[in-house]
Amino acid sequence: MEKMKNYKNKQQSERSSEIQSRQQKKDPFNIALRFIKFRARSEWEVANKLRQYGFSEEVILEALKKLKERGFIDDEKFAYLYAYDSLVVRYKGPYRIRYELKQLHVDEYIIEDAINKVLNEVNVDEIIEKLTQGLDEHKKREKLYRQGFGGEW
């Protein structure tokens, strides 16, 4: 008899946790949190992901508002982190970073601000030296251009 009660209680708790799990999966806020868990995302990326899940624009706007209020989404912080990481870790130049941030629908003035901030903080000459180490002048220029550094370096 006691075993039967324990078995029924266990089944009920499993069902309730399953229902709770399904409800969390349908919650746009939780979906967005899972999406931004691994790296910072732009507002557009999060909204686009929620659209893929089939949420209405009204629900998406409400979730974005909640995420902004709690500091999970901030395009200025995202652009800065993206630009810093791209330049320092991936050796991408300002032109390429600008292009990629535009593809992520970050506002132009935010992009310019972030790139200028990063360029003032980082020794770009050091990065260029690492990037072009052992190359002749012609190949050096080509590589810098491909990486988005343009002609001024």
3D structure, described in words:
By secondary structure, this protein is mainly alpha-helical. Helices cover 74% and strands 0% of the residues. The protein is built from nine helices and no strands. The protein has helices spanning 2-26, 28-35, 43-52, 57-69, 75-88, 94-103, 108-121, 124-131, 137-147. The radius of gyration is 23 Å and the shape is elongated. It starts with a helix and ends in a 6-residue tail after the last helix.
Helix percent band: over 70%
Strand content: under 5%
- H/E topology pattern: HHHHHHHHH
The tally of helices reads 9
Per DSSP E runs of 2 or more residues, the count of β-strands stands at 0
Largest sheet: none
Notable traits:
153 residues, mainly alpha, 74% helix
Question: What is shown here, in short?
Answer:
Helix content is 74%, strand content 0%. The chain has 153 residues and is mainly α.
SSE layout:
Elements: H1 2-26, H2 28-35, H3 43-52, H4 57-69, H5 75-88, H6 94-103, H7 108-121, H8 124-131, H9 137-147
Helix pairs in contact: 2-3, 2-4, 3-4, 5-6, 5-7, 6-7
